[in-house]
Amino acid sequence: MSTSIDHPVAERSFDRRPRSTLQRFGPLLVALLALGLVACAVTIWRSLRLATTAAGAPPSVIEVAAAPVAVETLPQWLRATGTLQAVQEVVLAPEVAGRVMAIRFEAGAVVAEGDALVQLFDGIERADRAAALARARFARHQLDRSRELSPSGTESLQRLQQRESELHEAEAAVAQIEARLAQKTVRAPFDGRLGIRRINLGQYVSAGEPIATLVALDRLYVIFTVPQQDLGRLRVGGEVEVASDAWPDRRFRAVINAIEPRIGTDTRNVSVQAILSDPEGLLRPGLFVTVGVAQAPRPDAILVPTTAIQATASGDSVLVVRDGRAVPTPVVAGPQIGNRTVVERGLVAGDVVISGGQLRIRPGATVAVAAAGAGPRRPEP
């Protein structure tokens, strides 16, 4: 007789079989998918709402600083670079050798024409002159005596002529010695300013040895060159404006007095010389200067603030305010004058250009010109 026996251990082992991955994570995946769908729905709803609001709202207005185009008569100049030269300049030197006995000037002093500057030893020449003067006086006495005796026949006419010749020879000897004596004194040949002294008291100097430089500073030459194509823009008597970095706030006036008749074969430039009057003696020979030759004024020149021009790889442009919008406009920029620039092409009278902050303004953006004295204002977010 068989007896049925339950095995609880075996039943429990059967209940512990592992569950599948889908059974364990299925509810979690369903929950995550539901959350993702909700988030997508919310995002799409917000985007549609913002788009609807933006379509119905007016565009934001950017307040900008702008300036109207200036149309005026513009003086024109032919620009060049040059240098200054002295009209009168000389290196003082003795004509003969000798020992320096006196120095009668200070370095940098202003002297007048004829002033004695250096005295060389002239004792021998003074003694020779004294002897020559004595001979000349004796020859004159002899001539006077012959003139008294000649009418009575005591002195012959030949003797009288001999006495006259002797007097002339004696006077010529005096003049010759006085000329040698004058060579012992170095004098200023013209009014001017002296340079640095190059000799000392008691020094023996040779003929032609430099003593000092003398320069007349009241009048200077302005030497400059221009390209050959500008030859027709030059004329003798034309006005020249001269500027130097030694006096950045001053402008000096000169007048063209000579134009080189020959073009330089190596540079194809024309050399020009102008005379500059400088009674104050502010400038110096050798200074580098910038030169502007006056030309006929240019009528109806268009000028804009330099900050209004944007330089790009494709060329210069400005933002013009037209119908309340910023319109990019290509231009051809000319020379800069102070803080303004000449516009050769691209603008007309009446245009208003944005003068600052162009980088934050998109082409076609709606803008409003700020009141005078008010800066540009960023748009509200």
Automatic annotation (TrEMBL):
Coiled-coil regions, chain positions: 160-187
Residue ranges crossing the lipid bilayer per the database entry: 25-45
Record key words, sorted: Coiled coil, Membrane, Transmembrane, Transmembrane helix, Transport
GO cellular component, one term: efflux pump complex
Matches recorded under InterPro entries: Beta-barrel_RND_2, MdtA-like_BSH, MdtA-like_C, RND_pump_MFP
Localization in the cell: Cell envelope
Keyword Transport (UniProt): yes
Residues of the Multidrug resistance protein MdtA-like C-terminal permuted SH3 domain: 300-357
Ranges where the CusB-like beta-barrel domain occurs: 222-295
Pfam family, one: RND-MFP_C
One annotated GO molecular function: efflux transmembrane transporter activity
Key word Phosphoprotein present: no
NCBIfam families reported for this sequence: RND_mfp
PANTHER family the record matches: BLR2860 PROTEIN, MULTIDRUG RESISTANCE PROTEIN MDTA
The protein, known as: Efflux RND transporter periplasmic adaptor subunit
Organism the protein comes from: Rhodoplanes serenus
